[in-house]
């Protein structure tokens, strides 16, 4: 099953926490995590800010619609993402923000570092989301260092790779599953995440399902203050398959749901190919996956 990790115990590198983390990373591809620097109330406030945005005025959302841009910052309405080519575009809505670089940085003009778009309402939205994003990146780096210790890799390896992270913070809003939804319609269809690790907070509603090695789907639920952690394609490549990028999905049900994934991706020019393989930059991989999955970017590259 999915191991539950105490972040403080992992930071202290206790044998129990290291063993459970290793099992989660190598066998399941999922963990749950508690006792981080992000409190339950900080998560709940952030969920409330996203909820006010998603359930608010449509014109306020349209004003920051990402579909008229060449990148993925701002609001994506229902159908803005198709994570599984065999399924229909997802019925969820999203709000994405990322890391902006100083204008004179050589990477600043790359779409993966595009400027954020902030809505006029609700009041305080930008401040709340940016505060959460900063803290969540710190929690994620510490966790990634704990994971490398757990799998026998060098924990000091990562810090400089994440100095200019292509990190993306997303609010996902799953309305009630639409009455028209069929077998190919999902809140988010089955997919693996693209980056290194994902730090996911949810409002406590169930809905996320994880695919085990035997193909069965198991539910995973977390209240604010507990995080669901999973690993993405870059970490799977980087570790030559030692860490698993596990498929997951949300079919959706009768209760609306909000989740907040932080996709913790390294800097554009990080080589994420396994040792001995031809180099592959994190930026190329991420740009390719964005172009495959955001419907307004499909066919763009
Ligand atoms: O909402 C969830 O629980 C999962 C979301 C997810 O998998 C994603 O945004 O990549
Ligand atoms: Fe995901």
Automatic annotation (TrEMBL):
Its cofactor is Fe(2+). It comes from the Bacteria. GO terms for biological process: ethylene biosynthetic process. It catalyses: 2-oxoglutarate + O2 + 2 H(+) = ethene + 3 CO2 + H2O; L-arginine + 2-oxoglutarate + O2 = guanidine + L-glutamate 5-semialdehyde + succinate + CO2. Residues 164-266 form the Fe2OG dioxygenase domain. Its EC number is 1.13.12.19, 1.14.20.7. InterPro entries: DIOX_N, IPNS-like_FE2OG_OXY, IPNS-like_sf, Iron_ascorbate_oxido_reductase, Oxoglu/Fe-dep_dioxygenase_dom. It holds the Pfam family 2OG-FeII_Oxy. Pathway: Alkene biosynthesis; ethylene biosynthesis via 2-oxoglutarate. One of its GO terms (molecular function) is metal ion binding. Keywords: Ethylene biosynthesis, Iron, Metal-binding, Oxidoreductase. The keyword Ribonucleoprotein does not apply. Belongs to the iron/ascorbate-dependent oxidoreductase family. This is 2-oxoglutarate-dependent ethylene/succinate-forming enzyme.
